[in-house]
C-alpha cells in the first residue's frame, strides 16, 4: 500500500497544485466590476493579482495597453513553463504535446503581422512562447527579412511540411484560414496517435482532445453558415471527433437552421452541448455562438476533471482556464482602449 501511494504521490501533488492555481483565477464578478472601470483602473486591479510581478517589471518600459499585452503574454508563458517543470511522467508528455498548439498560434501571428506590415514590437507583445519554439526561437523568426524567409527558417520543425505546402496559396490570397486549419489537422492527427500509442493515461487525454475537435468542427459549421469562410467546407473538417466527413458535409448543406441543429443533435451525446444547441435554434451572432460553445467546453472539462481528480484533466482544465483569463483581460483592455460600450465588451468574455 505504501508503495502504491508513493507511485501516485507526484500525480496527487501536481493535480492538487492545479486546483490551488485554479482557485486564484479571476472570478466572474471581478470581470463585471472591471467592465465599469477605465483602462488605468483595470491595470491597477490586474497589478494586485497574479500578474503583479510582470506589471511591476515592465511598467518602466511600457504604458497602457502595451503594458497589459506584454505582461499577460509573459505571465502566461512563465506559468505554462512552471507547470511543465512540476508535472511528472506521462502527464508531462501529454502536457508538452498539448502546448505544441502554441507553435501554430505564434507562427501564424508572426506571419500575419509581417504580411500586414505590423511593427515587430507589436507582434512580439502577443506571442506566448509556451510550445516547442521558445522565446529565442521566436525572436529569430521575427528577425527574418520577410515571411518567405520565416517559413524557410522553420525547416526541420514538425509544422514545416504543412507550412511550406500551404503558404504560397496563403500569400497569394491573403487568407490564413486554410493554412491554420491544415496545421491544426496535423496537430490533432499527431496528438491522437500519441494518445492511442498505449501510453498510460492516453484514453483520458483523448477524451479531452476528441471533445476539443467536436467543438472546433461545430464552430466551423456555424462560421460557414455565417459565410465567414470562403474555403471548401470539406477542407475545413478535422478528423477525430464524433462527426464523420460525410456528417460534416451533409450538415453544411442544410440551409434551415432548425433542421441543421436537429440533425447535429442526432450526432451528439454530451448533455451540456445538447442543451446549448437547443438554445442556439434562435439566430445568434457568430461570436456569441463561439463564446457559448467555449463555455460548454470548459464546463465539460470541469466535469471530467472532477471524475478523474488525479489525471491529465486537472492540468488541462487549468491550462485552458488560464488561457481564457488572459484572453478576457486582453479583451477588456482592448475594448476600453477602443472606447467600446461595456455591454459590447462583455459579449466577448468567456466567464
Q: What class, by secondary structure content?
A: mainly alpha
Shape: globular
SSE order, one letter for each helix or strand: HHHHHHHHHHHHHHHHHHHH
Number of strands: 0
Major β-sheet profile = none
Q: What is the average per-residue confidence, as pLDDT, rounded to a whole number?
A: 92
What distance lies between the first and last C-alpha atoms, to the nearest angstrom? 42 Å
How many helices? The count is 20
Summarize the structure.
The chain has 351 residues and is an all-alpha fold.
Secondary structure blueprint with pairings:
Elements: H1 2-23, H2 28-34, H3 39-47, H4 52-58, H5 64-86, H6 89-99, H7 101-115, H8 120-125, H9 135-143, H10 147-153, H11 160-173, H12 177-195, H13 202-225, H14 233-236, H15 245-253, H16 257-267, H17 271-279, H18 286-307, H19 313-337, H20 342-346
Helix pairs in contact: 1-19, 5-6, 5-19, 11-12, 12-13, 13-18, 18-19
Amino acid at each position: 500500500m505504501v508503495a502504491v501511494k508513493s507511485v501516485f504521490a507526484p500525480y496527487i501533488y501536481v493535480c492538487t497544485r492545479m486546483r490551488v492555481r485554479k482557485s486564484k483565477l479571476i472570478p466572474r464578478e471581478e470581470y463585471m466590476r472591471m467592465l465599469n472601470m477605465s483602462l488605468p483602473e483595470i491595470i491597477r486591479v490586474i497589478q494586485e493579482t497574479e500578474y503583479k510581478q510582470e506589471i511591476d517589471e515592465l511598467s518602466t518600459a511600457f504604458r497602457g495597453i502595451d503594458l497589459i499585452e506584454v505582461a499577460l503574454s509573459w505571465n502566461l508563458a512563465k506559468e505554462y513553463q512552471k507547470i511543465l517543470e512540476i508535472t511528472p511522467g506521462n502527464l508531462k508528455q501529454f502536457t508538452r504535446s498539448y502546448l505544441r498548439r502554441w507553435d501554430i498560434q505564434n507562427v501564424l501571428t508572426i506571419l500575419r503581422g509581417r504580411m500586414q506590415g505590423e511593427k515587430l514590437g507589436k507582434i512580439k507583445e502577443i506571442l506566448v512562447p509556451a510550445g516547442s519554439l521558445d522565446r529565442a526561437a521566436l525572436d529569430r523568426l521575427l528577425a527574418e527579412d520577410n515571411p518567405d524567409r520565416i517559413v524557410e527558417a522553420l525547416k526541420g520543425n514538425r509544422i514545416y511540411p504543412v507550412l511550406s505546402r500551404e503558404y504560397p496559396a496563403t500569400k497569394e490570397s491573403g487568407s490564413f484560414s486554410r493554412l491554420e486549419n491544415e496545421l491544426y489537422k496535423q496537430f490533432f492527427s499527431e496528438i491522437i496517435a500519441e494518445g492511442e500509442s498505449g501510453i498510460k493515461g492516453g484514453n483520458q487525454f483523448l477524451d479531452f482532445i476528441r471533445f476539443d475537435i467536436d467543438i472546433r468542427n461545430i464552430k466551423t459549421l456555424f462560421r460557414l453558415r455565417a459565410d465567414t469562410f470562403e474555403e471548401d467546407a470539406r477542407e475545413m473538417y478535422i478528423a477525430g471527433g464524433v462527426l464523420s466527413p460525410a456528417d460534416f458535409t451533409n450538415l453544411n448543406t442544410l440551409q434551415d437552421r432548425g433542421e441543421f441543429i436537429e440533425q447535429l443533435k442526432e450526432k451528439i451525446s454530451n448533455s451540456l452541448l445538447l442543451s446549448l444547441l437547443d438554445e442556439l435554434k434562435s439566430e445568434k451572432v457568430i461570436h456569441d455562438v463561439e463564446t457559448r460553445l467555449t463555455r460548454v467546453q470548459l464546463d465539460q472539462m470541469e466535469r471530467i476533471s472532477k471524475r478523474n481528480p488525479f489525471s491529465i484533466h486537472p492540468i488541462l482544465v487549468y491550462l485552458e482556464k488560464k488561457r481564457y483569463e488572459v484572453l478576457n483581460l486582453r479583451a477588456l483592455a482592448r475594448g476600453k482602449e477602443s472606447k467600446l460600450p461595456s455591454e459590447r465588451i462583455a459579449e466577448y468574455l468567456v466567464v
